[in-house]
């Protein structure tokens, strides 16, 4: 069994047409990217930084520390991006005073609802921090979803929304087996799939052609009552994409909680780019998937087994959904199509830095020099 992938070409990095304007702008932006959660950040951090760099942004990357380089020309924009901001008030206020004195503009970057880890354990790090006030004690914030932006806007009037996009279409994997491969790969999502497992097992027992490919979640793997399954532990992003690309169907269950409503639709985008037929919960994904054309939205527990069985039996439907989804990604969700809007926003922030600094000092008068 194999699937056709249309237009699967790698996105070049430098010196080649990106499908966008990459004319270098003057003066160049100096961007110090300070990462405090570097794991599984390929889509949100590493790949955008590659294209920002290729577009003329000078990037300095640092892990687990705030660092603003010295000796940069006065006329060049200097923007510090603080990724996954969780800060303590006394320390952060002193840091902000120093950065303001050195004419740095500070942006908080967040891609998950920060007041909740999404797990059952207590988020003590957040409880002992400035909390949401940390996102107020900076010039601006940037995030990946409108839902999360609406939360940030309660604390900071300047919020940029940059959806997670795909850097390039994944590698095509040629297959000759007759299995229908069903992919599941996620971290910390047990509460999303447990209620579905009995019905998924019923379909698996009925159709021995179904082979489950599971990445990350060993509990999901162990709960599958079939011998036709393969488990891969925590995988680097490139391997994760390759394993997914060798499959036919993607399962994207997601419960309706405040934390999860703020999550990104990137898992659908990744699967769609590989031409998979996707079954997804309405939470997050109903805003992207065109039900019945680019994927299937399961609005009840009963929908999951029915839709999975339909996709197992109907090869043409799988192909039709996968191709429409891939076309959607090619036309709308490649990072190269969106990187200029991020650069424009950074220039806009710099041009308005005096106004933004005045607003910051109004929120935190103790920052007054």
Notes on the protein architecture:
It is built from 15 helices and twelve strands. Helix 7 (197-206) runs parallel beside helix 12 (303-313) and helix 11 packs across helix 13. It has a six-stranded parallel beta sheet with strand order 2-1-3-4-5-6, sandwiched between helices. The chain has helices spanning 42-54, 89-101, 124-127, 133-136, 146-152, 190-193, 197-206, 218-223, 237-245, 258-261, 266-273, 303-313, 315-332, 339-351, 353-363; strands spanning 30-35, 58-63, 78-83, 105-110, 140-143, 159-161, 180-185, 210-215, 229-232, 249-252, 277-280, 296-297. The longest helix has 18 residues, at 315-332. Helix content is 37%, strand content 15%. By secondary structure, the protein is α/β, with parallel strands linked by helices.
What can be said about this structure in brief?
This protein is an alpha/beta fold. It is built from 15 helices and twelve strands. The protein has a six-stranded parallel beta sheet with strand order 2-1-3-4-5-6, sandwiched between helices.
Question: What layout of secondary structure does this protein have?
Answer:
Layout: E1 30-35, H1 42-54, E2 58-63, E3 78-83, H2 89-101, E4 105-110, H3 124-127, H4 133-136, E5 140-143, H5 146-152, E6 159-161, E7 180-185, H6 190-193, H7 197-206, E8 210-215, H8 218-223, E9 229-232, H9 237-245, E10 249-252, H10 258-261, H11 266-273, E11 277-280, E12 296-297, H12 303-313, H13 315-332, H14 339-351, H15 353-363
Parallel strand pairs: 1-2, 1-3, 3-4, 4-5, 5-6, 7-8, 7-10, 8-9, 10-11, 11-12
Helix pairs in contact: 7-12, 11-13
